[in-house]
Specification:
three-stranded mixed β-sheet, 2 helices
């Protein structure tokens, strides 16, 4: 090969090497820029993460305060409701106190006083939404009645309530106390 050709090849190789070096330097510059950009992005994400954690802590504290306030308000409501109920029962207590202090002249006077107090008490229960559960001559219902006694009889249908031993009460749709009853069992069935 001639020297000119060798020089041309060498120059060509040097040009290629120089172009590759420039590309490498540009890439290195881009990497440095990318690194700076990534570092800035990491810092931004760290700041954003700290803000989210702070917001989360505040929300948790707000929720905890809400829960405590709600429990306190429910307790106050219960106490207020109890106060109103007790205020309605006080006249009955007054009547009982007066009856205990008085000396009835006849048994009818005593009976009349007891009936008056009984009526007062039932009126208060009605105002509070408490109703007696019907039982006498009704079909036995285990959600409303508690069978205390089963009586063998042919005079009543099987499963009918024969007698109410203790009255049951409900508040709207909730049973406060089931009626204690005796239930008919017809031996023929």
């Amino acid at each position: 090969m001639s020297q000119n050709k060798k020089r041309a090849m060498t120059t060509n190789e040097e040009t290629q090497n120089t172009a590759m070096d420039v590309d490498r330097e540009l890439s290195a510059g881009d990497s440095a820029a990318d690194a700076n950009s990534a570092s800035g992005e990491v810092e931004s994400l760290k700041t954003q993460n700290a803000e989210y954690l702070d917001r989360l802590a505040r929300l948790q504290a707000d929720f905890d305060n809400f829960r405590k306030r709600n429990v306190r308000e429910q307790q106050e409501f219960r106490e207020y409701a109890l106060v109103e109920t007790l205020k309605q029962l006080l006249p009955i207590l007054d009547s009982l106190d007066r009856a205990a202090k008085s000396e009835p002249t006849t048994i009818e006077d005593l009976r009349g006083g007891v009936e008056l107090i009984d009526r007062q008490f039932h009126d208060v229960l009605t105002r509070l939404g408490v109703e007696p559960i019907p039982a006498q001559n009704c079909k036995f219902d285990p959600t409303l009645h508690q069978a205390v006694q089963v009586v063998d009889t042919t005079e009543a249908e099987d499963g009918m309530v024969l007698d109410e031993l203790a009255r049951g009460y409900r508040l709207r749709d909730r049973v406060l106390r089931a009626a204690m009853v005796s239930v008919a069992k017809n031996p023929g069935n």
